[in-house]
Design brief:
- The protein is an all-alpha fold and 259 residues long.
- The protein has one domain.
- Helices cover 73% and strands 2% of the residues.
- It has 9 helices and 2 strands; from the N terminus they run H-H-E-E-H-H-H-H-H-H-H.
- Strands 1-2 form a two-stranded antiparallel ribbon.
- Strand 1 and strand 2 form a beta hairpin.
- The protein is globular, with a radius of gyration of 22 Å.
């Protein structure tokens, strides 16, 4: 049954259709196949592109692609040097990966909203969402990985006793350890929640605006879609940058030893 038959409102059906993921499974074990596919494809694109440049890098006059990759590497390295105060060989590559991967997620929002779903429909695919960062499962999954790294490095640098001491004595002293424990748990959980919800909310809103523009008459669409797309480039870049910087800051805090 088509969505139009379900609601009788073509505009509503159009919006619902574009906001519905291609899923398999039920309940907790529901997988968003389109999110998994595009996230993996974009991640592999980033990996093979940067690996190709690294393998073929030359000390002579670099080409355009090598120049771009070197700029991105220096950009991530500079952000880590400014924000990270510990010692770790993982942080700079992690920052570069997060920025580029999240940017590629967000960049899919600039693909015309009907293009890829239309192509997919030719092969019998009923739903297709092409922007992974408009799926809270993707943004929350990435932020949970950051949370696990925070906990791992906190244990590694401070030790179990030092980490427990920080949880129980900061910021109000040892005599108010119940309040310290509650406050620190809330602070720890707020980090992945803020990372995931900020990215999801901004990109979901951007996707919705593109969908609403697509519902307008064809002669109005270019007048609105092009200015919004130019402005949206700033948004998707800023959101990737914020996710990267906050990740580096959180991991820097995890590397700070207990005094």
């Amino acid at each position: 049954m088509s969505t139009e038959a379900a609601s009788g409102n073509p505009a509503t059906d159009y919006i619902i259709h574009h906001l519905t993921n291609l899923t398999v499974g039920q309940g907790f074990w529901t997988f968003h196949l389109d999110t998994l596919f595009f996230s993996s494809a974009l991640g592999l694109t980033f990996f093979f592109l940067f690996r190709k440049v690294a393998v073929r890098a030359t000390a002579g006059v670099p080409g355009g692609l090598q120049n771009f990759v070197e700029i991105m590497v220096e950009f991530a390295d500079r952000q880590v040097k400014d924000s990270f105060h510990g010692r770790s060989e993982l942080i700079a590559p992690l920052a570069l990966t997060i920025f580029c991967w999240v940017f590629l997620w967000n960049f899919m929002d600039l693909v015309p909203v009907d293009l890829l779903p239309l192509i997919a429909s030719w092969f019998g695919v009923p739903y297709l969402r092409v922007v992974p960062s408009t799926d809270m499962n993707a943004t929350f999954g990435l932020s949970v990985s950051v949370l696990l790294l925070i906990v791992f490095y906190s244990f590694k640098i401070k030790g179990p006793v030092g980490y427990a001491k920080e949880f129980l004595t900061h910021p109000f002293g040892p005599y108010l350890f119940p309040a310290n424990l509650v406050l620190n748990i809330v602070e720890l959980l707020a980090k992945p929640l803020s990372l995931s919800l900020r990215l999801f909310g901004n990109l979901y809103a951007g996707e919705m605006i593109f969908i609403l523009i697509a519902l307008l008459p064809w002669w109005i669409q270019p007048l609105l879609s092009w200015p919004w797309a130019v402005f949206h480039i700033l948004i998707i870049t800023l959101q990737a940058f914020i996710f990267m910087v906050l990740t580096v800051v959180y991991l820097s805090m995890a590397h700070e030893d207990v005094h």
